[in-house]
Design goal:
It holds the Pfam family Abhydrolase_6. InterPro entries: AB_hydrolase_1, AB_hydrolase_fold. Residues 28-328 form the AB hydrolase-1 domain. This protein has helices at 45-48, 71-79, 82-106, 121-130, 137-146, 179-190, 219-223, 227-230, 235-244, 249-261, 263-268, 284-300, 319-322, 324-335, and strands at residues 3-7, 10-16, 26-31, 53-58, 113-118, 147-153, 273-279, 308-312. The chain has 337 residues and is of the alpha/beta class. The chain has a single domain, classed as Alpha/Beta hydrolase fold, catalytic domain (Rossmann fold, 3-Layer(aba) Sandwich). Helix 2 packs parallel to helix 9 (235-244) and helix 3 packs across helix 4 (121-130). The longest helix is centred in the N-terminal third of the chain and has 25 residues, at 82-106. The radius of gyration is 19 Å and the shape is globular.
Length: 337
């Protein structure tokens, strides 16, 4: 299986459908979320070549084939100061940028790239974006001239450091459950289909926090043994869950603010179109993020729209698995505009 070395002590595993049989194709680099790694996107890969799209799905650190975080880094995420955690996330963003630059050079990718982060993966993408001014000069030039699209797919509200709305519930942080019970309940909760109220209202009382639809069943229930090929059930406890917990919310809030709304950062990424998109049958915290970002972008009142927004009707958090053709249609529509 392919891996790529960023430096002597750091490598990443990735899935790759290979170069389409045309000279100028688009490359979509996928960054996965909590627990479910790059194989979550594997149903997209065989569908992409006929559309002249190359998909590269990386495994983040802590996940199979990629270099794990060191214990000191895990401890920083769990109990470090705000400054220490902010510096670590910035460093992880730089590493991700160097990975993408290495992929561009070693795979000879055309300079037409979309970076797509899904779920928790968005934290690492915004870390990359916000770190643009501390990237090595050649890496900065490579990415800012090659990355045409930045796509924020289903970021959960806790990844932005947003407090829970009244009634908000996420089983991953349920203090009444054991860590094992939290993860098991979360796996069903996040993979379910949800019917909410009037989403145009941006009113938290219209969100469904606890009662998913019975049909369709959660994606996790239809996976069977395949679930174990898509997930690493140990990675969250090592570091991912710590990133999302309340003690890190101030760091995350500042990180997103810099990545999306800092004038100098956005000027550096002037050649990239930013799009946020989500499924309207996803969990409440994904929709809540969309509302927050839409309101922030509107209040920024900039001459150029900072972030574009797209909603996938009827899609849950795992649309790339349940409806890969539809998910790829939506991604293709974004990268072709």
């Amino acid at each position: 299986m392919p891996t790529i070395a960023v430096r002597e002590d750091l490598q990443y595993f990735y899935l790759d459908n290979g170069a389409p049989d045309v000279p100028n194709y688009k490359t979509v680099i996928m960054i996965h979320g909590h627990t479910f790694h790059g194989a979550t996107f594997k149903r997209l890969l065989p569908l992409a070549a006929s559309r002249n799209i190359r998909i590269i799905a990386i495994n983040r650190r802590e996940y199979p084939g990629s270099t794990p975080l060191g214990q000191a880094e895990r401890d920083t995420l769990r109990s470090g100061s705000d400054e220490e955690r902010a510096n670590l996330l910035a460093n992880l963003g730089v590493d991700l940028a160097c990975l993408i630059d290495a992929l561009i050079k070693q795979l000879n990718l055309p300079r037409d790239i979309a970076i797509v982060a899904w779920s928790l993966g968005n934290v690492f993408l915004v870390s990359l974006l916000a770190s643009v001014d501390v990237l090595p000069t050649d890496v900065k030039k490579s990415l800012t001239t090659s990355v045409k699209h930045v796509i924020l797919w289903d970021p959960p509200s806790e990844s932005l450091g947003l407090p829970l709305p009244p009634g908000g519930y996420i089983p991953l942080y349920d203090a009444e459950l054991s860590p094992e019970e939290c993860l098991a309940k979360f796996g069903i909760w996040v993979a379910s289909y949800w019917k909410h109220g009037n989403l145009a209202s941006h009113d938290p009382s219209q969100l469904n926090y606890r009662t998913p639809e019975k049909e369709p069943p959660p994606t996790s229930e239809t996976l069977g043994e395949e679930l174990f090929a898509l997930a690493d059930l140990t990675a969250g406890e090592k570091s991912d869950t710590s990133i999302l917990q309340v003690h890190n919310h101030n760091v995350l809030s500042k990180l997103w603010g810099k990545a999306l709304f800092d004038a100098s950062v956005r000027e550096a990424w002037a050649g990239s179109k930013f799009t946020h998109f989500y499924g309207d049958a996803s969990t409440w915290n994904i929709i809540y993020t969309g509302w927050f970002l839409e309101d922030k972008v509107k209040s920024a009142a900039t001459e150029k729209l900072l972030v574009h927004f797209k909603v996938i009707k009827g899609a849950n958090h795992f649309v790339m698995w349940d409806n890969p053709e539809g998910a790829l249609n939506d991604l293709e529509a974004i990268i072709n505009t």
